């Protein structure tokens, strides 16, 4: 993401293994792995999916954008902090040390235990900060906390495998299966992604394929057939379908960015049902929404 006149870059991307850059921590999540999850959203992603619902994750930079929810002389509370009217900018992204992040995550440990949940690392793309993600997973794994990652698989082969071996599940996105279109539309190296998926599965990692349902991009018979044909030899049991939504559209306005998927229709229930039935016929237990 390039800076616009509405944004002010605060600092460059951290590289130290014990310091990472995140833009959110979501508690009580039920859609990013088993049980109740604490989801840590990493900043930075090398891809440019037109339907991305977290555009604030793309840039690795911390940015400040103008606030549009304060009026002159007003003060209000947000995230436990009082904001004065002169605080006219919102900061997106923050740097955290491994110890600081572990302290925040530990607040949810009781919910993880009673629900069979745990911690999910998401983004952005965690492979944009592989050393910090790996350090965090090592710490969580040593403490017996169930771990999951959400990934496009677009990144370092060896580091992804190390992460996967520390996880109870890996949620792995499949998007466009035509190599040229995938590169042109998403910026993704499809051969690398498919090889990384194969490596994880063959290493015994529990991998759950996830298929975003995006009209004009992924929702074609040709694309679905290619995905199912690729997955068939691996004998996996679970698969997630992720229908397009526009919940993140306001973020594009906030960031001063165009929203390429604005004109795309949300898939109708009958279309989603048809895809679910097709995947179930191929032998998968299908979850819609992931």
Give a nutshell description of this structure.
The chain is an alpha/beta fold. Helices cover 31% and strands 25% of the residues. It has helices at 98-106, 109-115, 130-142, 157-165, 179-186, 190-202, 221-231, 249-255, 269-281; strands at residues 8-11, 19-29, 37-42, 62-66, 76-78, 81-83, 89-92, 94-97, 118-122, 147-151, 169-173, 207-213, 238-243, 285-288.
Q: Name the poorly predicted regions.
A: 1-6, 69-86
Give me the number of helical elements: 9
The helix/strand series, from N terminus to C terminus, equals EEEEEEEEHHEHEHEHHEHEHHE
> What does the average pLDDT come to?
87
- Overall 3D geometry? globular
> What kind of oligomer do you see?
single chain
Strand content: 15-25%
The largest beta-sheet arranges its strands as 8-2-3-9-10-11-12-13-14
Structural class call reads alpha/beta
| Rg from alpha-carbon coordinates | 19 Å
Mind summarizing the main beta sheet? Answer: 9 strands, mixed
Query: How many β-strands, per DSSP?
Result: 14
Describe the overall structure.
This protein has 290 residues and is of the alpha/beta class. It is 31% helix and 25% strand. The chain has 9 helices and 14 strands. The strands form 3 sheets. The chain has a 9-stranded mixed β-sheet with strand order 8-2-3-9-10-11-12-13-14. Helix 3 (130-142) packs parallel to helix 4 (157-165) and helix 4 runs parallel beside helix 6 (190-202). The protein is globular.
């Amino acid at each position: 993401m390039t800076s616009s006149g509405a944004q002010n870059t605060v600092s460059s991307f951290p590289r130290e293994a014990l310091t990472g850059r995140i833009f959110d921590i979501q508690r009580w999540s039920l859609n990013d792995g088993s049980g109740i999850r604490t989801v840590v959203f990493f900043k930075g992603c090398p891809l440019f999916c037109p339907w991305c619902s977290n555009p604030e994750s793309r840039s690795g930079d911390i940015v400040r954008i103008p606030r549009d929810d304060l009026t002159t002389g007003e003060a209000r509370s947000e995230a436990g902090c009082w904001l004065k009217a002169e605080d006219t900018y919102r900061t997106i992204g923050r740097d955290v040390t491994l110890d600081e992040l572990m302290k925040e995550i530990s607040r949810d440990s009781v919910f993880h235990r009673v629900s069979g949940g745990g911690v999910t690392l998401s983004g952005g793309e965690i492979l944009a900060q592989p050393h910090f993600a790996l350090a965090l997973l090592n710490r969580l794994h040593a403490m017996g906390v169930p771990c999951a990652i959400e990934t496009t698989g677009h990144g370092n082969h060896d580091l992804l495998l190390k992460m996967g071996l520390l996880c109870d599940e890996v949620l792995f996105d499949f998007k466009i299966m035509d190599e040229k279109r995938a590169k042109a539309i998403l910026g993704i190296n499809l051969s690398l992604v498919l090889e990384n998926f194969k490596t994880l599965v063959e290493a015994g990692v529990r991998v759950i394929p996830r298929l975003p349902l995006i009209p004009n991009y992924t929702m074609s018979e040709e694309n679905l057939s290619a995905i199912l044909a690729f997955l068939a030899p691996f004998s996996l049991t679970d698969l997630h379908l992720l229908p397009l939504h526009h919940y993140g559209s306001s973020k594009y306005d906030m960031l001063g960015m165009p929203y390429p998927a604005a004109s795309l229709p949300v898939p109708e229930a009958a279309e989603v049902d048809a895809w679910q039935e097709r995947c179930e016929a191929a032998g998968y237990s299908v979850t819609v929404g992931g």
